[in-house]
Amino acid sequence: MNTKKYEEQIRITVLKISYYRRLNKLNQTKLAEKVGITPGFLSKLEGGKIANGAPLIIYMKLADILQVELEKLLKAF
């Protein structure tokens, strides 16, 4: 199993979350509120400090709120 590949995928995804959050003019607190997570969790997620990423439902909610297709959010390139 190539964990480096998955780590890179997570890194790219969290950068996209931050990008789309800013594009939608949302701060971390407001986005976290809308998703139903804590601002601290979102901060750790965007900072790449959650080693295995987040549950899929979190990414689904983020994509919906940030108005981006889930596939586009999760796809590396």
How would you describe the overall organization of this protein?
By secondary structure, this protein is an all-alpha fold. It is 68% helix and 0% strand. Helix 2 crosses helix 3. The two termini are 20 Å apart.
Kindly list the characteristics that best describe this protein:
77 residues, mainly alpha, 5 helices, 68% helix, globular
What's this, in brief?
The chain is an all-alpha fold and 77 residues long.
Question: Which helices and strands appear, and what pairs or packs with what?
Answer:
Blueprint: H1 3-23, H2 28-35, H3 39-46, H4 56-65, H5 70-74
Helix pairs in contact: 2-3
DSSP strand tally: 0
Radius of gyration: 12 Å
Order of helices and strands: HHHHH
Major beta-sheet overview: none
Residue stretches low in confidence (pLDDT < 50, at least 5 long) are none
| Integer average pLDDT | 92
What distance separates the N and C termini? 20 Å
Alpha-beta content class: mainly alpha
What percent strand?
A: under 5%
Helix residue percentage? 55-70%
